[in-house]
Amino acid sequence: MTLSKDPIHWIRTHCSRMDHGGCALLVGVSGNAIVKIKGDPDGYLNRGYACLKGMRAAERLTHPDRLRHPLRRTGARGGGRWERISWETALAAIAERLLEIRERHGARAVAFCQGMPKGLEHFALIRLANLFGSPNLVAVQDVCHAPREITGLHTCGFYPVADFHNPTSLVVLWGSNITATNEEGMIASGCLRSLAGGADLMVVDPFRTELAERAALWLPVRPGADAALALSMLHVIIGEGLYDADFVENHATGFADLAAHVAAYPPERGAALAGVSAEDIVSAARLYARSRPAAIQWGNAIEQSPSNFDAARALICLMAICGNLDAPGGNIHAEEPPALGLGPFVRADRIPNKRKEMIHAHHGAIHRLMTVPPTYFKRAVLTGKPYPVKAAYVQCSNPLITWANSPETKAALMALDFIAVSELFMTPTAALADIVLPAATGFEFDDIGHYGLGHGILLARPRAVEPPPECRPDLDILTRLGAMITDPADWPADGAGLIEAALAPAGLDFAAFAEKGYLKGPERYYKYREKGFSTPDGKVALRLDGAVKMGLSPLPEYREPPAAPDFPLILTSAKDPCYLHSSYRWMTRLREKSPRPLARLHPDTARDHGIADGDPIRVETPLGAIIQNARVTDRARPGVVVAAYGWWFPEASADALYDWDRANYNMLTDTETVGKAFGTPALKGIPCRIAPVDGLDGEGARGRQ
Ligand SMILES: Nc1nc2c(c(=O)[nH]1)N[C@H]1C(S)=C(S)[C@@H](COP(=O)(O)OP(=O)(O)OC[C@H]3O[C@@H](n4cnc5c(=O)[nH]c(N)nc54)[C@H](O)[C@@H]3O)O[C@H]1N2
Ligand SMILES: Nc1nc2c(c(=O)[nH]1)N[C@H]1C(S)=C(S)[C@@H](COP(=O)(O)OP(=O)(O)OC[C@H]3O[C@@H](n4cnc5c(=O)[nH]c(N)nc54)[C@H](O)[C@@H]3O)O[C@H]1N2
Ligand code: SF4
Ligand SMILES: [Mo]
After folding, report:
1. What digits encode the pLDDT tens for the residues 609-628?
2. Ligand 3 closest atom vs CA 580
3. CATH 3.40.50.740 holds for 71-144+343-440+469-499
4. Residues 6+ apart with CB under 8 A from 386
5. How far is residue 656's CA from residue 641's CA, in Å, rounded to a whole number?
6. pLDDT per residue as tens digits for the range 266-308
7. What topology does CATH give the domain 569-692?
8. pTM for this structure?
9. What are the pocket residues of ligand 3 if the criterion is a CB atom closer than 6 Å to any ligand atom?
10. How many Cα neighbours within 13 Å face the side chain of 462?
11. Which one is the CATH code of 160-332+527-549: 3.40.47.10, 3.30.1490.180, 3.40.228.10, 3.30.70.20?
12. What residue ranges do the domains of the chain occupy?
């Protein structure tokens, strides 16, 4: 951080782009430099809490290798040769190529790609795609939140989020490591407060996480077997009559069918499938059903598998029959504060045929899924089916590392006629672009946090400093580009105009919003008691008849995760508390904390393979092999490899694409089989094997494979 003689003044804002955001921060600014970041004790969600990533976030802004000028590729794609160009030239080149491709192949041949939603730019990109006429907004929602949200909409009419704003008797962390990931940006501090207030804790995770250490019950489930565990818990709860009979009778349909269905999952069978003891299943079922209210905080583990629809359905059935849906301290339907609805913001009206035209409609995915699963996008690029796709505008994303099946991703990116990437830093994906735009990032522009995330809250993220002269916020880039490739009348002069439009229904301008800090929707519970659930018959669909039309099961099924001969171990992953996905391996003060990709193994598993702590090891699946360093720990379930995800090496050479393939978990994840509902590949629960790697020192995996 730069030292300056100017006095420090403190700016209240919210953390962003280090996870989903959520912590209110006090950012100390001197001149145009951030000199200190700390948690804001008055923060509505965090009350002073902030994690290491958040407190070190300022290095993003000042890193010497940050992208500071637009670049145009000069040599072969991926060859690492660039020329500096002006913004005017860059935007004109992008506009020209996208219009030319639309002219020749139609608007749907241009895809707009976004990674994890980081701020309002996500919705501005959807708006751009809609106004351009392309139904193809490619995003990671197939493995992130949409399976939970959309399954919730079908089953009970809303996305049931854990409520930590009201007292609860039990917190269940089900495949969610909130002290490392602060899932959806608002959970960690709230959950810790619930625990401090006396709530019990149950953790379902093959890894003994920090909070599993404190849990009354830890179920180290076999990766990918969550639905079997949930079905077995339903068996016990129904069999022992522990459910909420009044709720089941008056507010749910299909209870008898569910009861008959789960009769096939007695605890002994559940135990054999889920790899935990029958006694623990019985204890878990009783603990959950007898704790009222109980909040299930469910994470990525539920949805990063092809059978995510069934796993999510099974968990919603648990919430429902125990009376925890829309109950304070349970899993609630969080109502949004007044703000412009998503439909009008993204101009959904301008692309009425989207549901039929989007690439995944041709694969029969659930039609409520409005973003194209990357796997189907790649197939379209590589095969021309259902129609040719030729160009991508990529924002806030690093697909070469974050999409399943990285070799296929590389082939698809190489096959595109044109790629533009908006980025902070040269990544393996940006290295394959034709044009790279230098983006401004968190703390450098005004933004709205949590818009569209379904937690009933909007967070103000006023800027703290000015970006470097040629770095621009995505919101500004999109309004400029929008005016060039779509009708300029549909765009305000700059990103601020989009922010004001989003806030208008709240009767606030951005300055007034920033002054308030956040907006919260009304806190109302048990809404179904007056008006029923927002499902066709007003009840929770324990048996979901509508699923049959979608080619899915009306009752939650358990499907064995894939097995492969010669791959006897099970691979899964957990996110690194020091990084966001593939981001920020280049930030020195984070890299010091987490210098290497670590694959965590139980001591028995390590011993069986002749592996010691720190050794470089080969982790292999039928798709490929990578090298990570062993971390031998009894926190891991025996027979399971909890590998690191998101790794590439900014210090490696540009023409090797920063060693995109050396330790990258998605070299191991296949896309041949994906789920019918959401096009989701298996990211967790994959057959694998490991072996020591000779001839590499403890630094491991550097420079060779
Ligand atoms: N195997 C496996 N794969 C996974 C997952 C997993 O658990 N396992 N997790 C999945 C999930 S949940 C998600 S959400 C996705 C995430 O996938 P991505 O969103 O593609 O991953 P990120 O690393 O967050 O990529 C963000 C990029 O945006 C850049 N960036 C940061 N701030 C800005 C900004 O303000 N503007 C612009 N233009 N760029 C910015 C960063 O430098 C970074 O390179 O990955 C998914 N992939
Ligand atoms: N530090 C950090 N924070 C982040 C992110 C990040 O990349 N880094 N990403 C952000 C994003 S976009 C998202 S979506 C959230 C995701 O946040 P989480 O849902 O917490 O995501 P993960 O860390 O992928 O997985 C959570 C837990 O699932 C466990 N697990 C693995 N396999 C299984 C399984 O088969 N069953 C069960 N029950 N558990 C399993 C892992 O051991 C891990 O503890 O985090 C957000 N916050
Ligand atoms: S937990 Fe998330 S929102 Fe809070 S400081 Fe850390 S990165 Fe920022
Ligand atoms: Mo995510």
Report:
1. 999 999 999 999 999 999 99
2. 7
3. yes
4. 359, 362, 380
5. 27
6. 999 999 999 999 999 999 999 999 999 999 999 999 999 999 9
7. Barwin-like endoglucanases (2.40.40)
8. 0.97
9. 15, 18-19, 21-23, 50-51, 53-54, 182, 185, 188
10. 17
11. 3.40.228.10
12. 71-144+343-440+469-499, 160-332+527-549, 569-692
